[in-house]
Write a structure and sequence with these properties.
With 332 residues, this protein is α/β, with parallel strands linked by helices. It contains nine helices and eleven strands. Strands 1, 2, 3, 5, 6, 7, 8, 9 and 10 form a nine-stranded mixed beta sheet that branches. Helix 1 packs across helix 9 and helix 2 packs parallel to helix 3.
Length: 332
Amino acid sequence: MWLSLCLMGCLLLGCFLIASLAIGSAGMSMSTNDSSNFEEVILRNNHSDNKIAVIDLSGLIASFSVDASGHNMIESLRSQFELANNDDYVKAILFRINSPGGEVLASDKIADIVRESNKPVISVMGALAASGGYYVAAPSDWIVAHELTITGSIGVIMSGYSIRNLMDKVGVQPIVFKSGKHKDMLSLGKREEDITPEERKIVQGMIDETFERFKKIVREGRDMDNRDTEDGESLDEDWESFADGRILSGNMALAQGFVDELGDLDTGYERVLSLEGIPDANLTQYRQPINLANLFSLFGKSETKEIKIDLGIDLPKLKTGRLYFLSPLLLY
């Protein structure tokens, strides 16, 4: 009798877990970019009716999924900005950035989210907000950087590899059939000397076009007419001479007008109070709650057999032939 009851209990528990998993998975697949996936938590309770939303961007900016649940970085940020913009009690957004940059298109989409916000956006830079990390901050109404923040690195990079000499050593000969003469211009099997001047011009043209877009975002973002503030720093006359890929400290960025103020999150908080003319506000944040679907997806991941080379550092997962707004600190 006791054995039957135990078996029945296990069966019921199993059915419950399977049903919960199915419901959670269906919910995620139907609303990956739905703001209902987030819950609001209080970071700092100042016992105020006013709120300031704190939204974080950390790590490599990329369009691919960033967690086991398949949540996309861009859509996650979009959902959080929508929550803040639709909340009448939220007076402004503190956008904390700690990123070396990343994919060009992903950076551009996040910059659009910042620009289209109907609430003031104050970007607060952490230890690193370079290249794409600065790109997404440029459309903000106000930018705060620590004096030791590494920022700048305004530029575009595309990297590739040639393994042809290695192939020749082991007796491997590439055989290529192509529809056009430039179809294999980024192929790993080409020697550097086989890249024609025309092919170099094509690639360099893409990089130059994207670089002009970067400078346009900076120029328009730092234009006082496009910002929800009457004061702040403007770009120095020769700012473009610093847009050559070099990294800048917070002090150097302030001197050239790339940021408005030196400080940290508390500085950004005080700036919001000043801009909005309010005495205080609670700091809130939007987080994704843990559910059974997320838990089971972690356990259900199969481990792919692969060979890894340990270089002693974690390198970003860059893909050959893609353009990046990326700080050189992660490349060399």
